[in-house]
Write a structure and sequence with these properties.
There is one protein chain. This protein is mainly alpha-helical. It has five helices and no strands. Helix 1 packs antiparallel against helix 2. The longest helix is centred in the middle third of the chain and has 33 residues. About 9% of the residues have low confidence.
Length: 149
């Protein structure tokens, strides 16, 4: 019997890949007007669905406290969810930035130019190490889990 957490986690990871594919399709097509609006709407809806699914995984971490899991397995699950939340937030923020730019009449970023990177990062983020970023994400998860018991 498969573990419900692993099944749900893999489903969310797959859904995130599908959303990235939809966004790549949107960026790859030269659409305007109704077609572009339709793509943008589909992506925004998908992002909302993914956010709810990631929140569900975050809540399942709290529920797993009562399960017979080793501390190592609990930490592994927490780390996986924190990293997934960080990937989702990064993807969501970039996509929404692109969509808002296209809606305001600005040109979409070119394919050769990265959506984010050293030039797009704030000094605050650039100065953090991966360990510090992970710690920050874990603290955000903990506060989210406390806010949504």
């Amino acid at each position: 019997m498969s573990d419900p957490f692993d099944r749900d986690y893999n489903r969310v990871v797959s859904a995130l890949k599908e959303a990235k594919g939809l966004n790549d399709e949107r960026k790859g097509s030269i659409t305007s007007g109704h077609s572009a609006t339709k793509f943008d709407s589909q992506i925004r809806v998908r992002l909302e669905q993914l956010n709810v699914e990631v929140q569900g995984l975050e809540r399942s971490i709290l529920k797993s406290e009562g399960l017979a899991l080793t501390n190592k397995e609990k930490e592994k699950r927490k780390t996986k969810v924190v990293e997934l939340r960080a990937k989702f937030n990064f993807f969501r923020d970039g996509v929404l930035e692109e969509i808002n730019a296209s809606l305001s009449g600005e040109n979409r970023p070119s394919k050769s130019k990265p959506l984010r990177g050293a030039e797009g990062e704030s000094d605050e983020i650039r100065d953090l190490s991966n360990k510090e970023l992970r710690s920050q994400a874990q603290n955000q998860l903990k506060s989210c889990l406390r806010a949504h018991p």
